[in-house]
Design goal:
homodimer, mainly alpha, 2 domains, 3-stranded antiparallel beta sheet, elongated, DNA-binding
Chain lengths: 177, 177
Amino acid sequence: MTGSVRPPSKFLAAIAQIQEMIKRDRLGPGDKIPSERELSDRLSIGRSSVREALRALELLGLIETRRGEGTFLRDFKDHQLVPLIGTFLFDGDQTKEDIHDVKAILELGCLAVLVRNETADAKELTNSVGQLIEKTDNRLLQSIWMIISNYAGNDPDDERLQKLLASAREIQYSKRQ
Amino acid sequence: MTGSVRPPSKFLAAIAQIQEMIKRDRLGPGDKIPSERELSDRLSIGRSSVREALRALELLGLIETRRGEGTFLRDFKDHQLVPLIGTFLFDGDQTKEDIHDVKAILELGCLAVLVRNETADAKELTNSVGQLIEKTDNRLLQSIWMIISNYAGNDPDDERLQKLLASAREIQYSKRQ
DNA sequence: TGAATTGTGTGGTCTGACCACTTAAAGGAA
DNA sequence: TTCCTTTAAGTGGTCAGACCACACAATTCA
């Protein structure tokens, strides 16, 4: 017998086809996607498998379901995935130290970005780092920091902040071509 | 009528309880978790709902299912969530820049940590940043970097690396108490 | 001993049946 | 007519049962 590739699970197939459908029909946040039963029909996949796919996408925060109404595309900005991951990832003991390191790294980097963009001012450092990060206008950075910060707890350490800024001034991230 | 809070969906309840079970039983990567039918029994939740939960966790790369064998905890290093999210999230144009920034931030921070720990040596910089990051012994940092890096693509920019190291030397993350 | 067979457990999938809820249409009272 | 009530249809939420495909270990048989 040659290869005999195993076909992808209906579950994954459903996700792929739903994604494709969204893209093809130019659906955006807030738009409604077909009902579970209709999807099951159109994709020739049992409703169970369609639901498994939808639930997974929902857990990721990519869609939103409202009983009696339907399933809607969500604004990707507020995806849930990371807090989710966190609960799994941040279990161990060592990770606690790691969190502090990563948080510091992100904060430093954030400042560096601000300095590069000349958005930041020394005075503004009286604000919390959280507010500063919002100014980076980097959604990805914001997301990650928010998550980390969520697990690190608050530590308004002004002294550390000053050191970070000093370091940040030294850094010049090369603008990408 | 007062509040009348809606009970959380079985789907979410299943996820929560499975997580709790994992924590309680001290299960780690590679370990097997109860079968779908047993979970359905123990949690008093229909197998369909249990499956929806498991599929979602699988999509995140947190568990792995093998037909005929069972469901196993996966090493968090290779969680799938980001490629997944990516197809939804990283469509736009701006996000692409964000990725580069975050990647640079992490790399810089990584070097700073290495310098602090006196683990890094100038010579070692001939290696890729990826290998350096492994030495930080910071799982969280490794995870995030791997994800980001996955979307940023490779750019072996030695010059940038040198600048980063110089900056890193200036930085002294205060050891946590 | 060693190979083939069987049995059991597991995930993968589908179907049909309810329930709870939302919305809009249909109906009747003013 | 207008307004409220009732009804119907559509949707997600959940469950139970039934198969199938597969992996593994126990059993059987040559």
